[in-house]
Amino acid sequence: MAARDKIRSILEKTRTIAVYGMSKDAGKTGYWVAEYLAGKGYDIIPVNPTAETIQKRKSYPDLQSVPKRIDTVLVFRRSEDALDAVREAVARRQERGDVTVVWLQQGIRNEEARKLAEESGILFVQDRCMMHEYQMINLMEG
Predict the structure, then answer these.
(1) Residue 121 DSSP code
(2) Helix (H, G, I), strand (E, B) or coil at 142
(3) 55 in Cβ contact with 44 (< 8 Å)
(4) Most buried pick, 17, 88, 92, 131, via CB within 10 A?
(5) CA angle, 66 as apex, 63 and 69 as ends, to 5°?
(6) Beta strand spans in 56-120 (E)
(7) What average pLDDT score do residues 13-19 get?
(8) Predicted structure pTM score
C-alpha cells in the first residue's frame, strides 16, 4: 500500500486517538494538533501523567489506564522516548486487542519502535504531522 493510501486509510478508520504526551500548554504542537483533530470529529484522549484534564478532557497517566477503546496512539515525545509509548501500545494491544496504529508526530523517528510495532501487528507512521496529513488528503479530494 502506498504511503498516501495507508495514511488515508488510517485517518478514515480512526475514531479514537490517545494523544501520548499531550501538552497542557496551548502554544505547543502537542496541544493544538489534538485540538484541531478534535474539531474534525476525532475522540481525543489525553495521556499525560502530569495533568488531571487537558482541553476539558480527563487525562490518563498511561495507555493502560484509558477505559475506552483506542484506535490510534499519536505520540508527542522525544524520539528517544518514543519506544516507551510503543511498548505501552503493544502491551495494550495484547491485553485488549484495540490499538491498531501508532503515529509518531513530525520530527519524531525511532526505528526500534517501528520494528516493535510492526512485529506486533500495529501499523506505524513516523515523522509526519497527523493534522497536516488530514489537511492534505482533504485538499486532494476537494
Answers:
(1) T
(2) coil
(3) yes
(4) 17
(5) 100
(6) 57-58, 72-75, 101-104
(7) 97
(8) 0.96
